Sequence to fold (315 residues):
Amino acid sequence: MYLLVAEQLTIMTLIAAVSFVFSKKHKYGEPESRYLSNLLLFVISPCLILNTFNIPYDLEKIKSFGFSMAVSFVVLLFMVVIAAVFIHSKTAIGKTRDSLDKMSFVYSNAGFIGIPLINGILGSHGTFFLMGYIVMFNLFLWTNGVYTISHKIGIRQIFFNPNIIAILLGFLLFAMPFQLPSILNQTIKFFGDLNTAVSMIILGILFANFKKPVKGEKTPFFRVARVVVFRLIIIPVLLLILLKLTINFFDFSDLQKEIILIVFIAASCPVGMTIASFSVLYGKEESYSSLLVSVSSAVCVATLPIMVKLSELIL
Fold:
C-alpha cells in the first residue's frame, strides 16, 4: 500500500518538475495556467466522468452506486461543517486565504491519488464505486466550492456547468442498453486520461511563478501546516469515528462496508489540485494554493497508508 501511494506521488512530482523547468525556461505564467485550468475543469473532467459511466447496465450496480453517493454526501457535508467551524481569520491577509483553506478541508485529490489507489486495491470494481464520491464531489464543488471562493452562485452556473451535464449524461448513458460508438468513446477516453498530466503541469507552472512574500511578510508555514494536519490527520480520524458509529447503528452488507471504505480513502487524500485551479480562475493567491497542494501531497506518503490501515482495522 505504501509503495503504491509513493509511486503515484513520484509520478506526480516528476510531471510537475518537468513543467516547472519548462515554464521557467520559457517564462510561461498566468495566461497558460488559466487556459489549462479551464481545459481541465470544463473539458477533461467532464470527459473523465462520462468515460466512467460508459459501461454495460447493471441494476445492482445502480443501487450500490446510489449508496456510494449517499455516503459521499454525508462525508462531504461533514467536512464542510468542520471547515466552517475551524476557519475564521482575524487579519486581512488571513481572511483572503480563508476560502482556500475551507476548500482544502473539503476537496481532496480523490482523482489522481484516489483512483489509482482504489484500482490497485480493489480493481475496476472498486473504481466504479469511487465514482459515486467523484460525482458528489463535483456537485459540492460547483455549488459549495464556487460559493466559498467567490461568495456568489447562480442556478445557470450549476445546471449549465459541463461537469454537472456530464454527470447527468453519464447516468443516462449507463441506463441505456448500448455504449458510445468507438470513435466517440476513444475521443472522450483520451481527454479523460489527460486529467493527471494536465493537473501536474498546472502545478509546475504555478511553482515556476511562485511569488516571494513582500517585504515584512512571511511565508505562511504555520497556516499551511495547520491545513495539512487537518486534511490528512484530524479530518480522517473524525470521519473514522463518524463512519464507525454509522456502521454500528445500521446493518450494512459487506459490499456496503467496502463502499464506505472506498469513500473514506477518497476523503483522506491530500489537498486537491482543484484548489490550485480555482485560485487561478477566481483570482486568488495562486502561490499559496500551490503550497497547500504540494506540501499535503508530500506528507500524505506517510499519513495515507496509516489512515487506510486504521480504516481496515476499525470499519
User: Anything to note?
Assistant: The first helix runs from residue 2 to 26.
